[in-house]
Amino acid sequence: MLILVIQKFFEIFQITLLVWVLMSWIPDFQKNIVYATLDRFFNAILAPIRKIIPPIGGTFDISPMILIFGLGLISRLLLTVL
């Protein structure tokens, strides 16, 4: 049961992150309250990653991809321990 909860948490977190990234590409969505909430949340989480790896060329930000890979790794590690 705990394993399923952990898996679902990481899946929902990663999907929400992907939705936020896709919303950031569409200017009309950036005026949305859902986008603003997700933007504050994910920018706070991504700030430490961006300090280590800043956006490439000042515009191409790979920190969400690094976070997704990191979450996948953490999820797998947790599931092997449990």
Keywords:
82 residues, mainly alpha
What is the element layout, followed by pairings?
Blueprint (H helix, E strand, L loop, with lengths): L1 H23 L8 H20 L10 H19 L1
Describe the 3D structure:
The protein has helices spanning 2-24, 33-52, 63-81. By secondary structure, the chain is mostly helical. The protein starts with a helix and ends with a helix. The model has no long low-confidence stretch (mean pLDDT 91).
What is the helix tally? 3
Shape, per Cα inertia axes: globular
Overall average residue pLDDT: 91
Rg, rounded, reads: 14 Å
Give the percentage of residues in beta strands.
under 5%
Number of strands: 0
Give a brief rundown of this model.
The chain has 82 residues and is mainly alpha-helical. The chain contains three helices and no strands.
